[in-house]
Queue: 4 jobs
Job 1
Amino acid sequence: MLKRDNSKQVFYYDDFLGHNEVEILKARGGETALIYALKLISNNPNKKLILTTRSFILNSAVESSEKLRIFNIKAKESIIELDEYTTEHKLRLLSNHIQESSLEADLKSVLDNKRIQSFIVTHRNFSPRSVEFITTPDKVSNFSPQEFEDFIIQNFDKPDEIWRHAYEQQINDYDRLLLNTMVSFGDGIDLEPLELAFNARLQYEVHHGGFTHPTNAFLRSFQRLEGGFIVQEYVEDQKLFKFINPSLVDFLTSYIGNTSSEITRIGESALFLRQITTRILPIIDKSTKVNGLSDNLIDKLLNNNGSFLKKDTFNEDSLTLAIMLHYYIDLESSEPVTRRLLHGIDDWVFLKSNEELLFAMKSFLREVKSAGIISDVRNLGIDFFKIILLTETSILGATEYLKLIVDKFEPNLPNIIKEGASVDLEEIFTDLLNQKILDDIDDTLSYANAQDFIDAKEEESVEIQDFLEKIGIKARANFSEFGNYDWRSIGNENYFQEQMEKDD
């Protein structure tokens, strides 16, 4: 528990963003609490918060989170490379995994062998993931001690070869099609869309790859793969089918990513937009794009995209496709289709609950330069812009987009607001501005230079209020809150406390 005093505390949160896409999306629900904790601790020199995750997961989370991006969490990032682990660190990590594992005693005895431990911690392919893999009972419980030792050696000598051998030699073409289809969705997927997408891929291969279509192909492959490659998992009462281990996802992503023909075939046979936006043409982290944009896929996206626009998710699919086309296909070809898709969206309320698309749309608004598309967005009207603004949880983020809207899309917004569209906006901006004042006060209570800091924060809040008033939004800020404290005394007390602790 965080103590609101100057006592020294360290908080440690391992894998705070989760291991995969499903967990990352779930973690976004707690971002407000996380940001609040970060603010409290970052401004107190006696409190430390250590959050661990892998770099690519952090990059993905920051790219898709407005809150983390504004907070600039990466400014505090420290990267620990594997080559910085000493032998002692590796031994300690291995010992912790052995102790926490529920392996049978005869298998633990293999790991307790000094020769095996030395092999593991000195191996060039040592990684925490490899250690986790060999100490997970589900993977090794059926091994004899000798088989387990052989497995350990093989896993470290050729980490990819375990999955490569199983993928290339132990399953058939139909099983591989199912795995490749599944990984195109990400880390987890419901059974129904997986079966539909698999059948679409199989039909593609019947026409282009010389395959036949055996009876119950999906069910047979699924039954062969379940338990060895695929497992069931419940996430918030939703049954998902996931890969048995993150290392299998890594292998498949790398294997397929280095096979351009397979990327092309996945794209051309895709039945759901998610199959394209997850790996091939992402609309959030565009740096993860792989080379799979064939002429046939371009034609499908531009001229035959109706199959991607599902009845139940028509508006979401239309926006996803519009953004994807604008990012990845030349403007001359994509602009008419992008504009038609945007025109076809009849209700934008889905942005309130779809965080991924909301973030993608906000990025799109920042980046779009086409005069025609900007004109179309302007014509969406005040109700659309209110959805964008009302989903912001900080005054800084909301003000950023308000300025963008006025400067780029709706210079007449002040007049529209004055004509009566301001009630919701005035309420939300009043609440956000007052929350900023309370947060600033809370932060400053631990500062040695409290008076200077609070003066700067008050000036910042006044500037925000003045800007809002200029465009017709009357945010009622409680500036009197700043005067409820003797900031010079607070600053002097904090400074004295800091010096006492330094002397200790």
Job 2
Amino acid sequence: MSNLRIQNNLSPPIQIDYGVVRQALERLVTDGVTGATLKQQLAQIAENYRCNAYQVDQLYQALFQEHHQRIDVAVAADGLEEITLISSAQLPIELGLYGDGGKLASQLRQVAEAMPTAPEFLITTLIPAVASRIGTSSRLAISETAGYTVSPIFRTIIVAKTGRKKTPSQAVVMDALAKLEEIHHQTYELEKSEYEAELSHWEQLPKKEKSQEPCPQQPTRKRYFSNDDTLAARIQIHTENPRGFLLYRDEASAFITERGRYAKSKGDNGETEADLSEFNGKSLSRDRKADGSIFMARTAISRTGATQFSKLKALMGKHQDDCGEWARYLFCAADSPPSYLDLTKDVGDLGLTAALIDLVEKLDDLPEQDYSLTDAAKVAFMEYQHELTDRAIATDHPSLQSAIPKIETYFGRF
């Protein structure tokens, strides 16, 4: 009976109105209360509504995260709307290729329609290919006082679904470079045979005659592009081709995934850092005990490749891009038609490969020269640069903060 009396005397459990507690916490979140004031008010809410202080704090943290997630989604939605508008805009390729009266642009467009694929895919490959032939021969001084110069270095990636002619569209440009590679490889093999014969003759000379006759110089092979993007290979090729060259990977993700594949240590032998700094075209210096010292005052290595949306998404992850890895690339995700061939419009060879070879050879003959902006060009550059600077100040997204300065650089390079 005594136990029963005690139970009957117990007070009924306190009923907590969690809806009211939630409203009080939501006001703290939306009002942006922080610091000591926040802690004081959380304790007051726990006391007023007779709640566990720990549970109040946990509910507040959950509401805080939900609130900011809603803000992030809203901001992202606004950004997607702008991106959608941008992606629907097209710049006719003829606007950038008018020096020959539009002949090359017409050839590129006709070939793209015959594949069929987006003509922008061909241009995306042509830009770095052309830039690689100008290479170290030319720079543009944006501000001579500040020493602000840009070099023709471009990195481009085509992004499209499987079957949308990514590789064939790049092959249109790469085939022209491959023919030149083949010609100069044959020339190199002949020169190498002559060199080996001359060297053998020179080594058999008496010591006195050898001292009076210079040692034959080993020939170098002229290069236009390479599929080997290891740091050692790039340095070797660039040393022999100081003007520059193009790096081409059919699967562009390999630029990232295959770094350090020959490294003996846990790192990548400095390949990531070299990739990032190489974009600026500055000097290159390397010292090796076996190979000696190498120094180049200027460098110019452009890149191109193609990939699928899924692979690019996996590589980018959350896309923080703090070091500006992806900001260094220009991506082309133009709409490409389904691969239905229309052979009724086949008119034979349009002469595009010959035209591209002719263009490349003319670029190779460009003299070494630096250029300055005209007064009108300075005004145009300043207007756009100021707009970009305003955007950089306004955004707090790390990837945009990395990308905007690169957009300015590319504007100068174009």
Job 3
Amino acid sequence: MTRNSLLLCVLASLIACHSSRDPSGGEGTQELRIAPESQTHAEALHQGAKEREPDLTRLLQTLARDHGASLHGLEHRLKSVESLARKIQTDVELGKATLPANVVIEDALRYTMLIWDDPRGRYDKVTRTVLRELESRGHQVRLVKNYWPRGDTYAGLNCVLAFADGFHWELQIHTPGSLAAVQEGHDLYEILRLPGTPLTERQRLFDRLTTRWNWVLIPKGILEPKSVHAKEVLRAHKRP
């Protein structure tokens, strides 16, 4: 079997898996069973995100406008109840939390900001300013995951923030180049993450994705320790 044929087979399996879901509970229902407690927690998180979304969206739009940035994919800012419930149930079954109510979801409300690194160093400077202004408006920066080092299947900043009451939300910060690479590699990345994808194929996909990321220009200064925030840490995905 050629590499292209194998990739097509994996894609077909993925499509078949999604097509077999039966929300009525009949034959073909997905294997993951959502406990009532997980569903309740998901609904509460979704409601909390909906209540906080309008003010936060306006604030981020203002910050983006004031600093020559833009928001991308606003239609995806609210994570669905179904997606939240699956994440909560999965974490419980994997032993990451003892009870559904103890599962912490960082991206029930999530945004993507696009910042140009032109002139060089602008991405680093504007990111630092945006995070500082969010803090001045009552949002706590909990963690800044810096995925910009080479040799990975992804690059960008994933910032975990929280409202004054502790409700978490996520802000991803990209350049036009990194956002384009994310979009181009999305389908391959989803196959890479599938448990059923053979190891050799996952390794091939990992190498293909990292090669694509080597074309993306790293913003000036972004690899300097704590360049955008004291809570910043370098992160990388390991090769399978």
Job 4
Amino acid sequence: MEASNEWVVITDEKGTILYVTPYVSKLSGYTREEIVGQNPRIFKSGYHSQEFYEILWKTILSGKTFNTIIVNKSKSGKLFKLEEAIHPVSLPGGEKRFIAIGKDVTKEEHLLREIEYFKFFDPLTEVYNLTSFIFKVNEEIKNNNALSVMILLDLKNLSYIN
């Protein structure tokens, strides 16, 4: 686990952090010494509601795994997203541990937003592409009861100029 590029945080049943992988330090900016002994609240971004955390605790205390994409905050204040699963583990003697295993999906989320953007906008001019233009014109025709006129100009060799 020490060499993995996985976010692994182990807590006791009160939420006190007992162990983290070096990747947790790398991603969060906190040293291992700053993290161990703390509550995972140290990473709280303010993005999730109180209800989210209540559902999380209710789920893991019932013995079920909690799967989510969670937004955390690094020591520098930068937000990062983890695809995370929190697994409850019962030890001999009745003690419980919670093992959070996650992977950073911040870059993937950013790329998905870019892909969505370029579905509807031209990358060079950053104006609507043909798909968006047709959609907007159709919406305007549906929503506008007045007489409308549209003029379409086809500039020769404009794509060549671009």
